[in-house]
Design goal:
With about 210 residues, this protein is an alpha/beta fold. The protein contains 5 helices and 9 strands. Helix 3 links the parallel strand 7 and strand 8. It is globular.
Length: about 210
């Protein structure tokens, strides 16, 4: 019996929040999420979405002139059959990014999938959601992201890095611009010489839907 996933949307745009920021990318947004962040901009993905066979997903993305795919949500790791999507994409030659909130164990994610793991800060309202065991599941190609709403979030992120020393390709500090001006975050980062990258949401700067 063919495996299905609950899909919120599939679209083609520029990747905006990782080391791959600026590259054309196919987004497969899975529906449903297990946490509720204060600043969430994809609440429409909380519902059940549309059930799609993995073969139908693969057929739809073939229409786009691109081999970079991001699986996002919602929280994609809530759906067991996402493992079958990893395999299908890998077999078809796609480079795969997985954006996850870090609250679900990541040990079974294949090494060919680049994990972009969001460590939730106190300002998100979900600051206790990160599963610390996931630090052991990170590969050098993977990335961590901290979405920051104010200075206490910044201090939380710096302390997290200092205490855990994650061995990843990049650590992103992304300000919620309605509550934290990027200039302020940049000044703090420069003062502390923090080993992280100031990351702005490129698609929002360009006003890409």
């Amino acid at each position: 019996m063919e495996k299905h996933l609950n899909i919120s949307e599939i679209f083609y745009s520029l990747q905006g929040e990782s080391n791959y920021s600026g590259y054309p990318c196919i987004f497969i947004r899975l529906s449903e999420c297990n946490i509720r962040c204060s600043y969430c901009d994809t609440q429409y993905a909380f519902g059940k979405g549309k059930s799609m066979a993995i073969s139908a997903i693969m057929e739809q993305i073939k229409a786009f002139p691109c081999t970079l795919v991001e699986i996002t949500g919602g929280e994609p790791m809530l759906q067991d059959n996402v493992a079958d999507l990893f395999v299908a994409l890998h077999d078809a030659g796609y480079r795969i990014l997985l954006e996850t909130n870090g609250s679900i164990y990541l040990a079974e994610v294949p090494d060919y999938v680049i994990k972009i793991v969001d460590v939730k800060t106190p300002g998100s309202g979900m600051g206790e959601s990160f599963m610390k065991w996931n630090l052991k599941c990170l590969n050098p190609q993977d990335e961590l992201k901290f979405v920051l709403t104010h200075y206490p979030d910044y201090r939380f992120a710096v302390d997290f890095i200092t205490q855990n020393q994650p061995q990843v390709s990049a650590i992103h500090f992304s300000p919620v611009q309605s509550t934290l001006h990027p200039h302020d975050l940049a000044a703090w980062m420069l003062e502390d010489g923090v080993n992280a990258k100031l990351s702005l949401q490129l698609h929002k700067l360009l006003q890409i839907p």
